[in-house]
Amino acid sequence: MDMNGSQRIEASRETVFAALNDVDVLRQCIPGCETIEKTSDTEMVAKVTLRIGPVKASFSGTVTLSDLDPPNGYTISGEGSGGMAGFAKGGADVTLEADGEATLLHYKVKAEIGGKLAQMGSRLIDSTAKKLAGDFFTKFSNIVGPQAPVDAPPEEAKEKGWIGRILGTGAAAFLIVAVTPNLCCITGGHSAMANDMMILSICTLTPVL
After folding, report:
1. Could you tell me where in the chain the CATH 3.30.530.20 domains are found?
2. Helix (H) or strand (E) holding 9
3. What is the pTM of this model?
């Protein structure tokens, strides 16, 4: 299976190249990735669980980086076994091209699969591979690219504080605890039972705007 493609990432080549070598970033971006660890500057071990059609399998394997040319690109190759589901091995040439302040990432992938996976047909395998690649680059771009600013809360919401956020925006609510008998903040009247106990009253006051 061969697959070529490009992705524009809103970050410099140096930032993109560093992220491609960062196991924490790769763990978040690789679909189905459960673990990935660096065993040396150019080798990693990983475990990935994927569903391809009716088959769900966990692949454990090694990943090797070669032809490193920072920040221009590298070659990545790997081999993984999914038990009875089959195996997968292959590699990709990754090239980074500056595009203003952004980076164009070009990749050429060659892969080989065997076992039950190979029996599913090239159409299913190809469509799944393209989806996985799309998911990877979408997450990668979101992590490596600029983060969207977080909108500040409106001034009105700030002024109301936590009580206003809980009880709504129409009125400010206050809790009044009557710790003495013969006190009622709502009606001014008291029952015989009220004279013998403490009263918890809740009053809602509409603020003057």
Report:
1. 2-144
2. strand 2-9
3. 0.66
Q: What are phi and psi of 27, to 5 degrees?
A: -60, -40
Q: Write down the CATH number for the domain with range 2-144.
A: 3.30.530.20
Paired residues of 132 in beta bridges = none
Place of tokens 């065997």: 114
User: How far is 95 from 166, CA to CA, in rounded Å?
Assistant: 52
Residue whose token pair is 């292959």:
90
Written as six digits, the tokens of 208 are 């003057």
- 78 bridge partner residues: 63, 90
SS3 134: helix
The backbone region for 161, taken as left when phi is positive above 0, alpha when psi lies in -120 to 50, beta otherwise, is left
The pLDDT tens digits of the residues spanning 41-72 come to 999 999 999 888 888 888 899 999 999 999 99
